[in-house]
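Task: sequence design from structure.
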């Protein structure tokens, strides 16, 4: 899981590293283990990468000053990399120099290694080497990307910055991973995983990069081409959890979708005579607001965040996830004590953090009742496309029904949103959504259709 950004300035006066830095801050929720920036200054590529949050890695502003250039790409990721050179964007120097970053999962990576005769320690490095070979053979970035996307099978959005100062962007034909495009003034020049980046850096959001579409930027022009036949299968979990509420993905406002999720949750599983609705920050707050409005139950503030906004669900170890929740959310006793609580959350994965939260509300804060409502369907399958969902045997919904989960987590009642309710809230036809983590049935990916 990760977030990517590419910014092409059409004037050498731009200092793009700072824009990329602020763009990565806007995408921090998509990956909190590593980050990096690569820029082009007219002659060569400059890079700086490290493990940690964006403002930790780039804590010294002099670092950004040492990344000259009017073109820049950057990435945040949630995977642990011991070697900083393997952190995205990955830079390769031969046969042709370029940098590559991507969000997603390549399903035929082993076949590519054997067929293309390349090696690497992670998917990004392997993809960068393959694209470098393709670019050397064709001499044309657009043609290279067309050939490249015809070879790879998986879910991806990717950005390449060449050693000649060209930026090439592509999105897989299913569009499982989001990618948006914006502009500074009249020229398209900003590509990012989410549209919130455009707002943060002062660009204008224009549209989504369409599934199977490629953009090529150079100093003189922008070329746009539909290179693979689109077959949209947009990730439903982006709307539930991953994307920021101020983003627009695939033509849908994340905030509006989450408000509709809360309404659907109220229609399906209202709590009789609930006294207060509390949303678990931050994702579930719109769910709770809409639930409150629909049921006419007062909305309260049940938790105060402590420290950084860490997304504990994407932490790599169980210890970090549990401690992360305990550290970041402190319950407000006055909002909870003696009340019949409707606790609204975005999802339940293993159930450990939900159990911990309910236990604190009951035994430490003195809640009279706790009724848990989840703004997504049952998670029953691991994602093969790079979304951070644990293995199937770790998912509580695989083994237990709602009544059993209620007993395990210590709630009075427990309910998930229905699959139908989620699809209706998103407002995209079911045939154009990837719902695999909720159904166990994933779309077939074929990258060679034209």
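Answer:
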């Amino acid at each position: 899981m990760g977030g990517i950004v590419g910014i092409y300035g059409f004037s050498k006066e731009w200092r793009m590293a700072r824009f990329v830095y602020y763009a990565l801050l806007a995408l921090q929720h998509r990956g909190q283990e590593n980050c990096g920036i690569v820029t082009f200054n007219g002659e060569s590529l400059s890079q700086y990468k490290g493990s940690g949050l964006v403002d930790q890695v780039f804590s010294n502003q002099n670092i950004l000053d040492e990344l000259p250039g009017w073109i820049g790409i950057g990435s945040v990721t949630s995977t642990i990399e011991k070697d900083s050179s393997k952190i995205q964007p990955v830079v390769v120097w031969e046969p042709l120099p370029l940098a590559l970053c991507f969000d997603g999962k390549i399903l035929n990576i082993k076949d590519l290694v054997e067929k293309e005769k390349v090696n690497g320690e992670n998917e990004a490095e392997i993809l960068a080497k393959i694209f470098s070979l393709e670019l050397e053979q064709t001499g044309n970035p657009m043609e290279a990307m067309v050939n490249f996307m015809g070879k790879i099978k998986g879910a991806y959005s990717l950005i390449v910055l060449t050693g000649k100062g060209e930026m090439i962007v592509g999105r897989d034909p299913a569009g499982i991973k989001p990618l948006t495009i914006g502009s500074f003034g009249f020229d398209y020049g900003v590509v990012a995983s989410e549209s919130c980046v455009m707002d943060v850096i002062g660009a204008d959001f224009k549209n989504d990069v369409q599934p199977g579409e490629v953009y090529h930027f150079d100093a003189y022009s922008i070329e746009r081409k539909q290179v693979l036949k689109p077959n949209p299968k947009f990730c439903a979990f982006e709307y539930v959890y991953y994307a920021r509420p101020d983003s627009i993905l695939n033509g849908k406002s994340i905030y509006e979708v989450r408000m509709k999720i809360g309404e659907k949750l109220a229609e399906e599983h209202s709590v009789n005579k609930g006294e207060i609705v509390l949303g678990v920050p931050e994702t579930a707050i719109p769910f709770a607001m809409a639930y409150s409005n629909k049921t006419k139950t007062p909305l309260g503030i049940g938790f105060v965040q402590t420290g950084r906004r860490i997304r504990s669900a994407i932490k790599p170890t169980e210890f970090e996830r549990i401690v992360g929740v305990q550290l970041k959310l402190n319950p407000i006793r006055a909002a909870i004590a003696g009340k019949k609580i409707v606790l609204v959350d975005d999802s339940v994965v293993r159930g450990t953090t939900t159990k911990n939260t309910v236990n604190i509300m009951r035994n430490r804060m003195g809640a009279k009742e706790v009724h848990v409502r989840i703004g997504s369907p049952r998670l029953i399958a691991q994602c093969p496309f790079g979304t951070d969902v644990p293995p199937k045997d770790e998912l509580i919904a695989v083994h237990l029904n709602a009544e059993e989960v209620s007993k395990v987590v210590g709630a009075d009642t427990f309910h998930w949103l229905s699959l139908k309710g989620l699809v209706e809230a998103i407002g995209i036809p079911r045939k154009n959504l990837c719902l695999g983590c909720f159904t166990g049935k994933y779309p077939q990916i074929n990258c060679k259709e034209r």
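The chain has two domains: 2-232, 254-427.
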